[in-house]
Amino acid sequence: MSTTAELRQENIAFQANLYESQNPVRRWLHNTRREWVMHMFEKIAPPQASFLEIGIGCGIYTVAMARHGNVTAVDINQDFVDAASAIPRVSATRADIMTHKFFPTHDIAVCSEVIEHIPDSLTALRNIRTGIKPNGYLILTTPNSYSTMELFARLLSIKWVVRLARAIYGESVDDLGHINRMTRSQLQAQIKEAGFIVINRTDRGLYIPILAEFGGVTGAQISHWLARHFRRSPILSNLLWTQCWLLQRPR
Questions:
Q1: Residue 1 has pLDDT above 50, yes or no
Q2: Residue 160: what pLDDT?
Q3: Burial class, 112, CB count within 10 angstroms (exposed 0-12 / middle 13-18 / buried 19+)
Q4: Does the model's pTM come out above 0.90?
């Protein structure tokens, strides 16, 4: 059995721990994105909505969407698929979103923290679009390429840095596996080319080295306060970790 320190991105326990981390800043960084995604689909979901989930992970959105309607969920990780299949009102399939055939039967698609793992995100976005009804929505999140978090996360490709991070946080830390980091303008160009229109956009989460590792609850409060102010600046908002987009497939 794997120890906590050996858990990796493809492990359900690793994914779930991100939202329950003992480190206040790490916990907030993931939950601030989660709160935005939850707020969006609760705001726009019609009664008995039909959801399409791209990338199941630990199922944190799968469970929530199933409370609002039926969920079709896809992931390349069979462990994630098996776990989601046990959730009522969820049909989960192991599939590659680059090639899987979708049908335009879903009111809302959710693709959170997925396209940064895919070399050709434009093709992925075009394919996701085929699974959404006309006037349906896509809730999309992905990291800002030059956010402070992503700049420092690049160091996690070095093994001794991962070991040091695990020692500091006292819990599982892993290379994020991001191979397709995009700036806002790069992603916006792909969104337009894929045939979506932008309904809402914001940025969430600010990582400040040292403060994140050793600032505790106060560090999380300071990070939250700064993120709120950085969000108002077209330049400083690029330092925030997550791009959050609400998109619509026009009729």
A1: no
A2: 87
A3: buried
A4: yes
Residue pLDDT, tens place only, 38-61: 999 999 999 999 999 999 998 999
Residue 168 CA to residue 140 CA, distance in Å, equals 31
Per the listing, tokens 């590659």 go with 96
Between 5-9, 169-173, 202-206, 244-248, the lowest mean confidence (pLDDT) is in 5-9
- Across the beta sheet with 90-94, the strand order is 90-94, 69-75, 49-54, 106-112, 132-143, 242-248, 197-204
Q: How far apart are CA 213 and CA 220, in angstroms?
A: 10
Q: How far apart are the C-alpha atoms of 71 and 105, rounded to whole Å?
A: 11
CB 111 within 8 A of CB 242: no
Query: CA-CA distance, 32 to 29, in Å (whole number)?
Result: 6
pLDDT of residue 3: 37
Q: Note the Cα 196 to chain centre separation in Å.
A: 19
Rg (CA), the chain: 18
Show Cβ contacts of residue 174 under 8 Å, excluding neighbours closer than 6 positions.
Answer: 7, 8, 9, 14, 156, 162
Q: Is 227 helix (H, G, I), strand (E, B) or coil?
A: helix
Pairing of strands 242-248, 197-204: antiparallel
Q: DSSP letters along 181-223, please?
A: -B-HHHHHHHHHHTT-EEEEEEEE----TTHHHH-HHHHHHHH
Q: Is 133 helix (H, G, I), strand (E, B) or coil?
A: strand
Structural domains of the chain in order of their starting residue, each with its CATH number: 4-248 (3.40.50.150)
